[in-house]
Write a structure and sequence with these properties.
The protein is an alpha+beta fold and 451 residues long. The protein folds into three domains: 129 residues, no CATH class; 76 residues, 2-Layer Sandwich (Nucleotidyltransferase, domain 5); 120 residues, no CATH class. The chain contains 18 helices and 16 strands. The strands form four sheets. The protein has a seven-stranded mixed sheet with strand order 14-13-10-11-12-16-15, sandwiched between helices. Strand 8 and strand 9 form a beta hairpin. The longest helix has 22 residues. The radius of gyration is 32 Å and the shape is elongated. The protein starts with 9 loop residues before the first strand and ends with a helix. It comes from Zoogloea oleivorans. This is ISL3 family transposase.
Length: 451
């Protein structure tokens, strides 16, 4: 009888209850008698008992402790002693196997401290179980390598590299850092990486070096979002400078309006347009910087890379001397990254800008103190099943032709005739593949209270 434990592998003998805990005395219903030292199974003798204490799933709001007397056995073949293996007990963690599985799953949803309190163990044990659980998920989880790969980063405590499938708008992975060695290691781990034709990145040099080393066949494209964002940063530097030196003490108002200055003029509603226009009329230097920011977007409105470069040179020549310093990062970016910025105009105009919404919302969750470590956040984002995007893939496969003679003569025909190309035909096979975490679904979840 399993009693309150409901564990077939244990026979319940007695039970005690306090305000916060259950204590159950039990014995193994069966044990494994195989000697771990020499493999002997039959010449085994009992050699006393060893009391052990294991944790089990919380029940009725109380922690559960199981007291077990586990047989000690002696192998007569090698004369060594060992403790019998008990079904359903994980001796490494001093818990039942079901509790280990439960903690692993729950650690994606709750903090280590919350789980430790529920079960009656320390936080270090919870983290160790979580690490083992995630390692198993990592081993079993397979994702498809994209044709267009996006590389970006997110700042969660420090900068972490993120990889996306641009065509399918899916997150592939998040790394604990963005070091060159880490990027190379990840790219080399991708299956069928030769299918990657384009890689979109920002202007972080280790990304470029890693792609050129591991994916020489891929066209590297600097994401236009990161190019024009430098102009926004330059405009913001001018705004801050004016706010500090303004004698009319209007710096606070300028600061409140900073998000409006970052928006495209065409995206402003009537009220926002009036606000921005008012500030620009007050500060001619700010108006000149805003005009430069807006006109840089025109570089991306042309058709060819030659036209784009000419448009940029015209833009650069129009920078007033008093704005040369704040807009210097834009000039440096175009001079140092010209080839890869202009690759945007070659064929497919790829951009990884959609990941910025993901970055902003994940940063908010991380910053708001939901108890997430980077490891927990990554595991929840990558391995939650309802977030996975699965799509059909068609593949060409070689299959053996089935002939009348083969059917009548049985297997002997295959042995006598061998394998020839004429015996095979190519067919199209459809399979479902996981392209990663669906970003639109994840963004909706991040906006809800269910994440």
């Amino acid at each position: 009888m399993s009693g309150i434990l409901n564990l077939p592998g244990l026979r319940e003998l007695d039970k005690k209850e306090s305000e916060t805990e259950y204590h159950v005395k039990a014995e193994p219903a069966a044990i494994a008698r195989l000697c771990p030292h020499c493999g002997e199974l039959h010449r085994i003798q009992r050699h006393g008992n060893r009391p052990i204490y294991v944790r089990d799933l919380p029940t009725h709001g109380k922690t559960m402790m199981i007291h077990l007397d586990v047989p000690r056995l002696k192998c007569m073949a090698c004369q060594r002693t060992f403790t019998a293996v008990v079904q359903e007990i994980d001796e490494g963690f001093q818990m039942t196997e079901r509790l280990v599985r439960w903690i692993g799953r729950q650690s994606l949803e709750y903090t280590y401290a919350e789980l430790a309190k529920q079960v009656g163990i320390d936080e270090k044990s919870v983290r160790t179980i979580f690490d083992a659980y995630v390692a198993k998920l990592e081993k079993d989880f397979k994702r498809e390598t994209p044709v267009w790969l996006g590389i970006d980063e997110i700042k969660l405590g420090r900068f972490r590299a993120i990889f996306t499938n641009i065509q399918d708008r899916a997150l592939i992975d998040m790394l604990p850092d963005r070091y060159h060695t880490s990027i190379v290691r990840f790219l080399e781990s991708l299956p069928n990486k030769e299918r990657i034709t384009h890689v979109s990145t920002d202007m972080w040099r280790p990304y470029r070096l890693a792609v050129q080393r591991v994916l020489p066949q891929a066209k590297l494209v600097v994401d236009k979002f990161h190019v024009v964002s430098k102009a926004n940063a330059s405009l913001d530097a001018v705004r801050r400078s004016i706010g500090k030196t303004d004698q009319k003490k209007q710096g606070a108002g300028l600061k409140k309006a900073h998000k409006l200055f970052a928006k495209r003029a065409a995206d402003l509603n009537d009220e926002q347009y009036i606000t921005v226009s008012g500030w620009l009329n007050c500060f001619p230097l700010l108006a000149a910087a805003y005009d430069l920011k807006e006109r840089l977007y025109a570089v991306y409105d042309v058709e060819t890379k030659e036209e784009a470069w000419a448009e940029y040179l015209n833009w650069e020549a129009s920078i007033p001397d008093e704005l040369a310093k704040p807009f210097r990062p834009v000039k440096t970016a175009f001079r140092n990254w010209k080839e890869w910025i202009l690759n945007y105009f070659d064929d497919h105009r790829i951009t990884n800008a959609f990941t910025e919404s993901f970055n902003a919302k994940v940063r908010r969750v991380y910053r708001n103190g939901h108890g997430y470590t980077f490891e927990r956040l990554r595991a929840k984002v990558l391995f939650t099943d309802r977030l996975q995007k699965r799509i059909p893939f068609q593949e060409k496969v070689k299959v053996k032709k089935q002939r009348f003679e083969d059917i009548s003569m049985g297997r002997m025909t295959y042995f006598m005739m061998g394998s020839f190309d004429d015996d095979y035909e190519v067919k199209i096979k459809t399979r479902m593949g996981n392209v990663g975490t669906d970003l639109p679904t994840l963004l909706a979840l991040l906006d809800s209270d269910d994440f």
